[in-house]
Amino acid sequence: MTLETAMRATEMLLAWAFIQQSAEHLYRPIDGRWLFGLRFVCSLALLLGVLTVWSLGALALISLIMLHRFEGPYNGGSDKMSVLILWCLLLAHLMPTPYLQKAAFGYLAIQLTLSYFVSGWVKLVNPEWRTGRALRDVFAFSAYPVSEGLRGLAIRPTLCLVASWSVILFEVFFPLSLLSQPALIAALCLAAAFHFANACLFGLNRFFWIWLAAYPSLLWFQDRVVQVVM
User: Is 2 left (phi over 0), alpha (psi -120 to 50) or beta?
Assistant: First the structure.
């Protein structure tokens, strides 16, 4: 995958994610709705490839306004990843040399890889995750809209233990998938399925599209990793 193709795919997926997020606020009588309306228009322009750099610049400025208005990323990790993708794309377009462009976009791929590895490492050193207790608590006490049927999984410790270790091992060993394109594609499919399941089961729908938006950077970056290692 070429740098241009990966960046364009990332732009389109990010724009689509922003359009969905912004649309949620256009039908709510909240202060600042104009800001999400402007974000919607800029995202649509980015999706269509109209004035790409200017659209990214406007969205970057809007992201700063939103960080100030909501005193930080109001939706947690998904907003942090949104800002990361947005600014990496903008910098990749603005860098004066191909080397610096690749460095800016490659930084996104590295951070995406670390997002999985660090998450897995934190779980690995946490005894409650190693015993499955943390996952049981998620089903039993989570404030997310988990159905009553899913809450019943909290009384199945073996299932929670297996699921916990499956997530831990996948996240910790995720960086190794960079050594093989088929392995990376399989890993990204599993990761996407994981985010989709979280969206369906816990309502964490924003994570699905935002993390998918960063995947093209990793597909592009994997070719460079193989060249260095091999």
Answer: beta
* pTM exceeds 0.85, yes or no: yes
On the question of pLDDT at 147 being above 60, the answer is no
Give the percent of the chain with pLDDT over 70: 87
Q: For residues 56 and 89, give the distance between their C-alpha atoms in angstroms, rounded to a whole number.
A: 8
Cβ pair 130, 124 in contact under 8 A: yes
pLDDT of 152 = 66
**How far is 135 from 14, CA to CA, in rounded Å?**
30
Average pLDDT of the residues in 82-103: 93
**Other CB atoms closer than 10 Å to residue 115's CB: what's the count?**
19
Residues 134, 126: contact at Cβ < 8 Å?
yes
Task: Name 96's Cβ contacts closer than 8 Å, sequence gap at least 6.
Answer: none
Q: Where are the beta strands (DSSP E) in 10-163?
A: none
User: How wide is the angle at C-alpha 103 spanned by C-alphas 186 and 121, nearest 5°?
Assistant: 50
Compute the half-sphere exposure of residue 164: CA atoms within 13 Å on the CB side of its CA.
Answer: 26
Summary mean pLDDT of the chain: 86
Q: Are 164 and 132 contacting, i.e. CB atoms less than 8 angstroms apart?
A: yes
**Residue 132 phi/psi, 5° resolution?**
90, 0
Asked if 113 and 89 count as a contact pair (C-beta separation under 8 A), the reply is: no
Map tokens 């040399």 to a residue: 97
What gap in Å lies between CA 153 and CA 117, rounded to an integer?
26
* Euclidean distance between CA atoms 163 and 143, whole angstroms: 20
